[in-house]
Amino acid sequence: MNNRSYALRAGLFVLIFAVAILAAAFWIGGNHEPRARYVVITHGSVFGLKPQSTVFFRGITAGIVRGIHVDPHNPRMIRIAISVDKRIPVTRGTYALLKLQGVTGLSALELNTTANLTPLATSRAHPGVIPMRPSLLSRLTKAGTHTMKQLAELSDALHQTLNATNRAHLQTILANAAKASRKWAILSERLNDAVAGLPQIEQHADLTLAHIDRLTRQMRILGRHLQALSDTAQGASTVILTRTLPQIDRAITHLTATSDDVLKLSRSLRHHPRELLLGARPMAPGPGEPGYQESR
Predict the structure, then answer these.
(1) Are 50 and 2 in contact (CB under 8 A)?
(2) 161-183 confidence digits (pLDDT tens)
């Protein structure tokens, strides 16, 4: 009886000690803190991420990875179950990044958030979904792969371009470029000579402009003289038209009348020269005058 009681007590002590150890491990491990469950989904690689990997929120330890498995409905998608401290503000703008930890090859999850601060609803039955964005390493790998592909395509294009015919064309182009360069050098020297002569041209231009200025002033003076002469000529023409020409016209009229009288006198003397000594004969009386006789 004593042995049986002793064994029972010993077993009870071992059980209590084991429970105490488990409770201490649970407390030390931080599992005593209330946590919420979420699911991170990604189409990329999660190399280096394992269960119990640390989850960070902007550098702060926020939780752990509970499990990693492939989505049974979409083999290209990976689902990462995580537990996060309920005090961490997980919102609809929260996203995850895969973060390498040193040179160990292990990875962790880094949570970050955008301006959308609406809380993300979650529960054990329906955990909230957090999208994963490509990490810097993934983006660099993708960019490097794309760059290598472009380099390969460029190499193939250059190989196809630089065949025998195109190489001959390229040599011709280079020869023409060299010839054009020589011509440009000659043209540049000529331009330099022309630029050197610009001061003399400018001096001659200044002298020419001075001569043109003096000629312009002289032409203005000549124009004023011509205007005065025109005004004088206009006044003289007015005097001639209003005074001289009427007098000349009257003199011409008198001269014409006198000329007619002289012509008549000359004709009369030619036919009757005695009229010069005896005077003009009296004219025969006309009809109705005394002494008029009708001719028979």
Answers:
(1) no
(2) 666 677 777 778 888 888 888 88
What pTM did the predictor assign?
0.42
Which strands make up the sheet holding 107-113, listed edge to edge? 94-100, 107-113, 54-57, 60-70, 78-85, 35-42, 128-131
Cα separation of the two ends of the chain: 226
The boundaries of the domain holding residue 57 are: 30-134
Q: What is the CA radius of gyration of the chain?
A: 67
Residue 221 tokens read as 């003076």
Q: Which pair of tokens denotes residue 180?
A: 């054009």
- What are the tens digits of pLDDT across the range 29-83? 554 558 999 999 999 889 889 999 999 999 899 999 999 999 999 999 999 999 9
**Alpha-carbon distance 48 to 91, whole Å?**
26
In a domain, 261, yes or no: no
Task: Give the DSSP per-residue string, 152-215.
Answer: HHHHHHHHHHTSHHHHHHHHHHHHHHHHHHHHHHHHHHHHHHHHHTHHHHHHHHHHHHHHHHHH
Q: How many Å apart are CA 220 and CA 229, to the nearest integer?
A: 14
Tally of structural domains, the chain: 1
Q: In this structure, what token pair is assigned to residue 219? A: 């032409």
Q: Kindly tell me the burial class for residue 68, based on how many C-beta atoms sit within 10 Å of its own C-beta (0-12, 13-18, 19 or more).
A: middle
β-strands 54-57, 60-70 pairing: antiparallel
Instruction: Specify if 198 maps to a domain.
Output: no
Q: Is residue 234 domain-resident?
A: no
Helix (H) or strand (E) holding 54: strand 54-57
Q: Which amino acid is at 229?
A: L
